[in-house]
Amino acid sequence: MSVDFEAVDYFTEPSIVDDPYPYFEWLRGDCPVHHGTRNSALVTGYDEAIAVMRDNDAYSRINTVGGPVPGLPVEAEGDDISHLIEEYRDVFLMSDHVITQDPPDHARHRHLLTRLLTPRRLQDNEEFFWRLADREIDSFVEQGRCEFVKGYAEPYATLTITNILGVPESDHPKFRDAFETPVLGNIDGSKYTGGHAKNLEKWFAEYIEDRRREPTGDTLTKIALATFPDGSTPDLEEVVSLSSFLFAAGRGTTVHLLAASVQFLAEDPALQRALREDRSKIANYVEECLRLESAIKANFRLTRKSTELAGVGMKAGTTVSMLLGACNRDPRHFENPNELDLDRPNAREHIAFGRGIGACPGGSLARAEARVSLNRVLDRMADIRISEEHHGPPGDRHYRYDPTYALRRISELHLEFTPIG
């Protein structure tokens, strides 16, 4: 279907959901910064996106989650709207979470967050990652087919972050069964309904209160007793908010990474053989999957002060939409950007996890989950291929993605394979 890109509203156009990349290329051909609808600037350039992410003076993180929705409830006037951002901060989505906070509040809460996902914490939990991968594959491997998103990616991502946060393994089933897929940035204008499990904040509040009363030395105790850099103790609500956010964020983006990494394998037998023969290439392969299929489709900032980006003027109050799927395919930074290259020397320079103070602290966890999962998939599934019954034949594939302007997330991935062993 031919699409008139000139007439496209990025935030509402359904035709670019499943394959946004031609539209991204068209935008970049005009300029790496393009004025769009809803008082927005669409950024497709790699260098330009990094410049925005690192400039906390001109750009606020307040709209990181929803972009132009709901936006300021009053008209932005003047060249500095810092006072309006603070006055109406509570209007914005997830305004009490670290992801939308600006300095100095962001630094205080970020300090707590980084202590939850340390290299030591990942190392201590890796045995569980391997055991969980086998357990989830056990549930479908003998059938020689599966729907990978709900059959593996969602439960695996949910239970790894649950384990990292120190939730007792006896409580894992209720987290797995209760999680609801978030409605965030839907192109039909439907409201955000949250990305948390039912009662998630209630559960974490109970855990934290219990550990503060009776410390046990487990991960939840470390979370409960964590302090700000100045030594002060966060309120219960602050700790619960941070834990709940980490749970939802750690799960959501990793699901698409796991699905995309297996989708590429199933589409390319040669790639599959290369990784089977040399598992050391998996690390760079994961970086290429992150670059080519960024789970965060758009990352947002609100222009606090009137400024210029790539020679394009932006008034205070403009929503800056950094289209990560475009920025990570910028030919000025990545040679042959639309190709998956196992030996790409700068693959890890992608910005799928952001940059600056907003860089995702869960990047190492997502990489570990993908590495473990891919090894186990290759160990236990041979001749992995896309189900033509569900997605059509090669050259005429049909994949459906969630209809959101904020996230890149495949809805279903049906596979067929030969069980090993």
Short description:
The protein is an alpha+beta fold and 421 residues long. The chain has helices at residues 21-30, 46-54, 82-87, 105-114, 119-138, 148-164, 172-178, 200-213, 219-225, 236-267, 269-277, 282-292, 324-327, 363-380, 388-391; strands at 33-36, 40-43, 59-60, 145-147, 298-303, 307-309, 312-314, 319-323, 381-386, 414-419.
How does this structure look, described?
The relative contact order is 0.18. By secondary structure, this protein is of the alpha+beta class. The protein has helices at residues 21-30, 46-54, 82-87, 105-114, 119-138, 148-164, 172-178, 200-213, 219-225, 236-267, 269-277, 282-292, 324-327, 363-380, 388-391, and strands at 33-36, 40-43, 59-60, 145-147, 298-303, 307-309, 312-314, 319-323, 381-386, 414-419. A 5-stranded mixed β-sheet has the order 1-2-8-5-3, sandwiched between helices. A 3-stranded antiparallel β-sheet has the order 4-10-9. Helices cover 42% and strands 10% of the residues. It contains 15 helices and 10 strands. It has one domain (5-419): Cytochrome p450, CATH 1.10.630. The model has no long low-confidence stretch (mean pLDDT 90). The termini are far apart.
